[in-house]
Design a protein that fits this description.
By secondary structure, this protein is an alpha+beta fold. It contains three helices and four strands. Strand 2 and strand 3 form a beta hairpin.
Length: 105
């Protein structure tokens, strides 16, 4: 395409459309887990990318970490037994968009 501006706008629209499609098949999951059980959860968590893991800010939450990740909706129900066993404070959101920006430079 000769017009660079139009080419970039088409790429932007494509990214947005892909983001809506990807989000419709995904869930964003937040949960807390004891550090000693972290590897057990991570082994069972079918995440889009490696999850974000951070220590809880409250000092009396010793040994607990928070996990934030994106999973496929189709895998969520099969995770319930593992999450029930090792996790606490599970929060699930349906994202509006997940933009695969790294794929569209």
């Amino acid at each position: 395409m000769k017009d660079e501006w139009k080419k970039e706008k088409i790429k932007d629209i494509l990214v947005l459309l892909k983001g809506v499609i990807m989000a419709s098949k995904s869930l964003r999951v937040f949960l807390n887990v004891k550090e000693k059980n972290l590897n057990k959860i991570l082994a069972e968590l079918p995440a889009l990318k490696p999850p974000t893991i951070s220590k809880l800010a409250i000092t009396d939450a010793n040994g607990w970490v928070a996990i934030n990740t994106i999973i496929k909706k189709s895998k969520f129900l099969s995770l319930i037994p593992v999450l029930r066993k090792y996790a606490q404070g599970l929060v699930v959101h349906e994202p509006r968009q997940i933009l695969p920006l790294e794929q569209n430079k």
